[in-house]
Amino acid sequence: MSLRLRLALAGAFAILIALGLAALGLSQLFAAHVERRAEAELTVHLDQVLAGLDLGPDGLTLARPPADPRFALPYGGLYWQIEGAQGIERSRSLWDVVLVLPDDTLNTGQVHLHRLPGPPGQTLLVLERSVTLPARLGGGAVRAALGMDLAELAAARRDFITELLPFLGLLAVVLIAAGWVQLSVGLRPLRGLGDRVAALRAGKAARMGQDWPAEVRPVAAEIDELLTARAAETERARSRAADLAHGLKTPLQALMGEAERLRSHGATDKAAGIEDIARAMRRTVDRELARTRTAARAADALCDPAQVADRLIAVLKRTPDGADLEWHQDIPPGLAVALHDADLAEALGAIAENAARHATARVRFSALPGNATVSLCVADDGSGIPEAQRDALVHRHARADTSGTGLGLSIAAEIAEAAGGCLGLSDNTPGLIVTLTLPRAHAPRP
């Protein structure tokens, strides 16, 4: 799972939990508010009931009942009850039910709030007050109670939650979308980090640079230091390879001279053995030199294959194999491949030398540029190479015939592969086409 998706899911989960807790808290606050409003309403009704009391022939009576019609409707949801020494008076809405008040002691004017069972199926919120009657009402203390069905409060709470949930759902969608946008903006530098690393690999950039957020800048700096160290190590490896090649050339040349001296004295077999050993050593040295120079290709490596081909043709025209051939160079100027000039000269030179050795009349250089690669083709009109031998020819120490070392094409193939490309062989009818496919280079960013 991607980092962005994990953060998005975690954020969405946290938003849903937070909104769920908010809904629960708002519901509790609304219920408390409704209960306070109900208590205030009960107080008003109780004051009206007490103000409407009168003394009749049979005792206390309510001369002026409250205006709310629920007091007159059996089990209507609002109820009053007066309990004193002369008996109990209650609202018509209580019908045949008597409120059983708790056995508690109230001082005069003191108010208690209870939750008591009422008419069947109802639980009441009851406001109880102790009142001392005036002399005109017979005096004495009474307990006045006024109750309200709690179902009304529960219905109000349910309605509030029902109306609240769509808004919370919409808020959740908005917050999750905003979180996704925030993640996209916040994690954009990470995508840029991957793009810059890809540009480094493709040779489109030389370094990561410093144009990064503070959290990403240390990573970019470490990568730049790694690239610097790698470039320095590559340069040392190239220098050591060059020193090795130069150090072995003189001993190998001495061995070839010794073989020639033995041959002049008639020791042909011994001379041939020494020459084979020297050639094998030279092949190994040349191959390792090519591998060392190309295994860690620099990010800013680029060269113009047209210029390299022009230099190679100028040299090959002066060799015995190339002097009598027609050379055609059709590579468009301005192309750039991601390879050092010397490495391309070695790879293309090995292919051109092989073409010159086998061509009958002409050798042609051409190029097929693509979006990401450039295919450099060297075609000759010689006898070609059987298809069964082509794969083996580009591998280590392979040879197409006994007259050559067979090293040139394998070195060219290895240089191409180290640079991220490949080498291919195809028919020219007559002759052979050797195609060197290399990554196309771009001007590196500073």
TrEMBL record:
InterPro entries attached to this UniProt entry: HATPase_C_sf, HATPase_dom, His_kinase_dom, HisK_dim/P_dom, HisK_dim/P_sf, Sig_transdc_His_kin-like_C, TCS_sensor_his_kinase
Q: Which UniProt keywords apply?
A: Kinase, Membrane, Phosphoprotein, Transferase, Transmembrane, Transmembrane helix
What is the top EC class of this enzyme, as a single word? Answer: transferase
Q: Where in the numbering of this chain does the Histidine kinase domain appear?
A: 243-442
Q: Which residues cross the membrane?
A: 164-183
The protein here is known as histidine kinase
According to its UniProt record, which reaction does this protein catalyse? ATP + protein L-histidine = ADP + protein N-phospho-L-histidine
The EC designation for this entry is 2.7.13.3
**Gene Ontology molecular functions:** kinase activity
What's the chief localization of this chain? membrane
Which species?
Mesobacterium hydrothermale
| Xref: Pfam families | HATPase_c
The protein's location, in the record's own words, is:
Membrane
Q: Gene3D superfamilies from the entry?
A: 1.10.287.130, Histidine kinase-like ATPase, C-terminal domain
